């Protein structure tokens, strides 16, 4: 696992500023490299403006990203590893994984069974317990 930080760039502090988030950049810290070379280096993993072609991080563009993830399985597969692992996993996301992750992205409340009624609460709980990060 690689620790990560996310830095947000805002449209701010100028006349007519919207103060809206413009982009997010995710940086990774390579612990193995740090331990081997005694150096602290944060490397850019991705930026939302280049990885997802997003110019604003507002509800409309976030909804469009979600809809693309839901409708384009190839796009989902090409970006899923960033979201979960910050490194390409050994296995692809299965059909069950895909359904449950889309549900989790949709709701932000993966514990709420009313958001994804086609997936039982038991199925959701079992999946999330098996794939929890810590």
**Number of DSSP strand runs:** 3
Helix content: 40-55%
Cα shape: globular
Rounded to the nearest angstrom, the radius of gyration is 17 Å
- Spatial gap, N to C terminus: 10 Å
For the largest sheet, list the strands in their spatial order.
1-2-3
Count of runs of 4 or more consecutive helical residues: 6
User: How do the SSEs run, as a string of H and E?
Assistant: EEHEHHHHH
Secondary-structure class: alpha+beta
Residue share in β-strands: 15-25%
How much is the average pLDDT?
A: 81
Largest sheet: 3 strands, antiparallel
Low-confidence stretches: none
Please name the defining characteristics of this protein.
134 residues, 44% helix, globular
Protein architecture, described:
The chain is α+β, with helices and mostly antiparallel strands. The protein contains six helices and three strands; from the N terminus they run E-E-H-E-H-H-H-H-H. It has a three-stranded antiparallel sheet. Helix 3 (59-71) packs across helix 4. The mean pLDDT is 81.
Give a topology summary:
Elements: E1 4-10, E2 21-29, H1 31-37, E3 42-47, H2 48-51, H3 59-71, H4 73-84, H5 95-107, H6 121-130
Antiparallel strand pairs: 1-2, 2-3
Helix pairs in contact: 3-4
